[in-house]
Fold:
Amino acid sequence: MIVSNPNSICKRAQAYYYEYLCGEDQEYIPAEILAHIDKCHFCQAEVDRLRIILAEAEEHATESTGRTSSAAITNLRLHFAYAGAPVTCNIAKPFLPSLAIPALEVGVPTPITVHLDKCQQCANDLEVIRQLNLTHKQLCRLSQIFADKPSEHTVGCSETRAAVLGVGFMHFHKANAEVLKHLCTCSNCREQLYQFRDKVRRELSDDESTQNRFPCEEVSTADIFDYCFPYGIDPANDQYAKFRESLTSHLRYCPTCLAKMQQLHETIYNIVEQPDSEVVTYFTFEERINEGVEPEPTDLYADWPINVQVLDKSKIESKTSSTTIWFPRLLKQRVLALNLKRFIKPASVAAAVILMALFLLNAPVAKAVDLGQIYKALGQIKNVYFAAFDPEKPEPTQEIWASKALNVKMVKTERECVLWDLKGKSKKSRDLNLSSITTAKLDNDVLMKVGETMKAPWGLLPFDDISKVPPGTKWQQVADEDLETTVPDTEVYDLVWTKKELIGSIVYNKWRGYINTKTKLPRRIERWEKGAKEEEYKLITVTGVAYPTAVEVRATIKDAGF
Structure:
């Protein structure tokens, strides 16, 4: 085994391995270091190891087509764009929501994470955001709110304030995407919205929320987030519009839930409007020169070739006034142009590249979705909504809401709406033409049959259990060019099998699922068939699928008149 003397020239040579490896950058290497690497067996072995690391990292980056890996790498590049620049709370703030997303967790010290290590105010703000338990998409939108500036919008305060009444009552269709953005980022306009909702809340009776028996305690922060911060919602293309009215019809007139919304509003905008603390950090890549000296036990970055300084804010304010506008205008240009070899001193390039290689090697590589993952994902959900369509008709022929959390199932057709209440052991039917409701008690056999339909995979897959998939069934990903319909953030897979009819004929069946790449849950399902003598498959049914919260299901049931 080849070993080096930690006090020898090998230690200093480590910082130049990347330049040595690149060849054209050897001009940056001191002559004595270059001569040493050429002759040293240990250094040559380390250079070879770095070559393997970088090759593997490049292979992973090339193969990783998943959006999660791409987003994580982009996020890390945004962090490192601030190497060699002062980082204030205002700069770190847009990164806080992404740091609360597990898939974007940063495992190496960066200019942003070291600021949080030194700044208690930002660390506290990150913990507040984590405690909100927002969804991935909501955290991404929150980052945009922290970063955006109303001066860059195409609408002004006068147009936005005219929409306060409609947005205040959660009628998003009375505004547009740009108005909603401005309303979230302009301090004056959002104060108008806050005051309007507070006036509505004060005028409502304190017991009004209990009179309608809506379980306000089940309304979570994630449930009301969109209505407090509609940034990024386009009312003209709102995929959740069908669910919103069910919940907002309660929120508009519930003082309890409106108070929750006001509290969330205050929590988020207290972070937005909070001034910088006195902590300003400065992160650089730097070769460690104290060879043979044990680092201090309190040194958080002892194992990393970096230097972190906490600067005197009063001495650098005049120099950093322009850096606070890097988001979003100048930072994008800075990241796109980021060349670590030119941005930091050449001796430190190896450290930066190794940091990137370590991250890439540990980043999850996107793989094809297998059928077992879909069964598993469907087995973990508690609530589902799906609408079945005849391919020739625009309106659904049947809609179903099912909730294990509430122990209910509601089925809506053209003529009637039926609510199966397993806990209450009852069936309520509402004639949609007459609006009359009939109630019937259910025996145990019926309850068991209804309960069976609410087990995973909820009827969304052609076989109740993966063990029942017949031999010879094919599972394959569908190329984009073979699709006529697209669903955002999904990959498309076909499950193809044959079935022999009683009369002996063979029917070819195809289940096509548009699978969310992160959750592994289907968002759209198509059923296709063809006979043995037919060349083309025929589309039989289309099913749109969503996964509402228990609160949204309960609100929909209430909206249906039950």
